[in-house]
Input
Amino acid sequence: MSSIKLVIFDIAGTIIQDHGEVVSAFSNALQRNGIRFAPDELKRWKGASKREVIRHFVEQSGANPDADERVETTYRSFRVELENLYSQNILPIEGTAATFQWCRDHRILMATTTGFYRDLSDLILDRMGWRSLFAANISSNDVPKGRPAPFMIFRALEAAGVQDVRQVINVGDTPLDLQSGNNAGVRGVVGVLTGAHDRESLQREPHSNIVGSIAELPALIERAF
Output
């Protein structure tokens, strides 16, 4: 019998399909506001707090007395771009519904953490009809710092009423997901290959397991936890 009490899922690329919406929205917003960036670098920031990503590129572009205003203007542009993209099409990763049901059947609580802001994460979960499935839904603006800091994971534990990190699995598709799980000290740090990063990229990060998708999670829990 598994001792796992809580599984924490990232959203984009982990439980919903990732078609490059975030990178596209970042690229358009940064270009529109005249902020220089390397396209390849955007992918490295996937999973991070979106406002923190924009601040990074604004500060990287040099000293600017209006940096805070520029960050907020660009962030507003990013939100409009991203919400337009996600309002068109949201699809679950294959096997997600079965994994959710397996967790419920085995009395394992579920939560989400995401670099998305609250309005967008709520939009996605509501559109999918998933919000009531989770003991907690934590977004980057619920904590002082996003991934790779462990704060969203800790907030999810608090909201779910789980006290022991050794009873928790964190699942995500990005290096930052794995780093945050490792920083939180949870028992399972599981990478999935349904997002923007390949196996080689994820294997470089601290992890307990890497699987093809969350469809493989029930068998993994039964076998390894």
